[in-house]
Amino acid sequence: xxxxxxxxxxxxxxxxxxxxxxxxxxxxxxxxxxxxxxxxxxxxxxxxxxxxxxxxxxxxxxxxxxxxxxxxxxxxxxxxxxxxxxxxxxxxxxxxxxxxxxxxxxxxxxxxxxxx
Amino acid sequence: xxxxxxxxxxxxxxxxxxxxxxxxxxxxxxxxxxxxxxxxxxxxxxxxxxxxxxxxxxxxxxxxxxxxxxxxxxxxxxxxxxxxxxxxxxxxxxxxxxxxxxxxxxxxxxxxxxxxxxxxxxxxxxxxxxxxxxxxxxxxxxxxxxxxxxxxxxxxxxxxxxxxxxxxxxxxxxxxxxxxxxxxxxxxx
Lengths: 116, 189
Hints:
The structure holds 2 protein chains of 2 kinds. Chain A is mainly alpha-helical. Helix content of chain A is 54%, strand content 3%.
């Protein structure tokens, strides 16, 4: 598994009860990471839950969150989910502070069409 | 390849770091997604409801102690420390929400539908449950009491829908098809 592992592709968004469980593949990856790390004993699910609640609460105090209206976007929710996961992993020292930022920048700079 | 969103890149960055540090494998992430999409789903909850409909003793146990009553099914992927099952009757309609975030009995109902996480649902179902239920197509008579149950990390709720009369004459498979996810959340009757 190298840096070029594509995030999209094989994960076609699944349908259930006529709805998309995940609107976009990254949302499924984020959810899957959190659960897999929990299953592996990296943290308790309740710890993640608490972090997610706190992240959402903080956002609800920002102007953007205060005036957020329906359709509140699955995307917004998974943004919180991802932010909460990053914060918890940093707190647990499983991921170094700034590491995600740095790698994101590196990934964003990848030339297109050279994933494989 | 198409442009990825910043969050998608960020998620990919996080995953690659975790994989490098041996905290995670891509396969484990795939497995979770498959498990939640296919193996865990509203069908688990439907099996519990069908059993309660068919067996009054089981129903009594389920309403008494939901956590204990579902143990025999050995559902995987739980996160249900305490399950409370609330029964719909001719005079009571129950509906479930999580006003804080999106606590949900995943082990029974799979992943929550997107509207469950919607702040509008989360706030309005508490303030004006009848209006919200009507928007879902559930129009209740005035003499039906509406109870709203707020899930939390500690307690998850599931609604035991009323058994349709037709269920008595059906085989189990047909009964399972009657039981929808929405009915177990309480936004269908």
